[in-house]
Specification:
single chain; 14 strands; alpha/beta
């Protein structure tokens, strides 16, 4: 299973285009892995998580042909994760040579936003799939289950577990400490890789709500081991970083290296 990280920043990007704080200025100065766009990732080039407002730029930067994407799994409708109106660029008469529809999956709010944005263009180019928490569905040659996130109390935000080619991936953000129902469902799942939210730096809280911090990620790692959620040789990858964390890429790496946690960056490709 190939995992391609397109963006690894929180909602404002890193650096924030409007911000002149010490950490945004330093990120601009250093460049490289410190320049982060809004979060998204792809699996085996055909499954995409979320469609951020930076998606077009990410496709150009990483030389990706979005026409081969078959499935779009949306976690929630916050503006940094789902820019539904941009999908109009895939409609008949605008995009040519497409041989398959784009299957769009998500909660009720995702369906509403998508219909409002591109509903009149559905035809052969798009297909909508309403998901229910913890109900497993077939997505191409993968099995997909959407556990619940702890993120926005006004929306049923979802995480995703992908089972494909004998491997299991947990796409675990945006979320703070997982809801009890999600922890119960994940028990003994033995995933090969877990991608977690690390929006914040140190907060002094081991079970942060809405987003995770460093302490919450490390507490989640302990819970994964205790409940056999992650394989013994499985990896945890952190992403979705905010400039308000007051940490740059090398600093996150120094913090997480002793725990064996991988710090994602824009353009990172992993294979599990």
């Amino acid at each position: 299973m190939k995992i391609h990280f397109l963006g690894t920043a929180a909602a404002e990007g890193f650096p924030n285009a409007f911000c002149r704080c010490e950490y945004c200025n330093k990120a601009r100065e250093l460049g490289g892995k410190n320049i982060r766009t809004r979060s998204s990732a792809m699996i085996d080039d055909v499954i995409k998580f979320d469609y951020s407002p930076d998606s077009f730029m990410q496709a150009l930067r990483d030389n990706i042909d979005f026409s081969i994407i078959e499935h779009l799994l949306v976690t929630h409708t916050h503006s940094d994760h789902y820019n539904a109106y941009d999908l109009e660029c895939r409609r008949t008469g605008i995009a040519h040579g497409l041989q398959h529809p784009l299957h769009i999956y998500g909660n009720d709010a995702v369906m509403h936003h998508t219909r409002a944005a591109i509903g009149r263009f559905v035809g052969e180019r798009y297909a909508f799939h309403l998901l229910r928490p913890f109900e497993t569905i077939t997505v191409g040659d993968a099995l997909v289950t959407p556990p619940l996130a702890d993120h926005d109390q006004m929306e049923t935000c979802l995480l995703y577990v992908i089972e494909k080619d004998g491997k299991k991936l947990l796409y675990g953000h945006d979320s703070g400490w997982f809801p009890d129902a999600t922890w119960a469902w994940l028990k003994d799942k033995h995933v090969d890789c877990a991608i977690l939210d690390c929006t914040h730096g140190y907060t002094g809280k081991s079970r942060d709500r809405n987003h995770m911090c460093i302490e919450t990620v490390l507490e989640a790692q302990r819970e994964f081991r205790k409940e056999n959620i992650l394989k013994e040789d499985g990896r945890i990858v952190v992403t979705h970083f905010s400039h308000n964390s007051k940490l740059l890429h090398n600093e996150f790496e120094a913090i997480f290296k002793p725990a064996g946690v991988v710090v994602a960056y824009d353009g990172l490709i992993l294979h599990i």
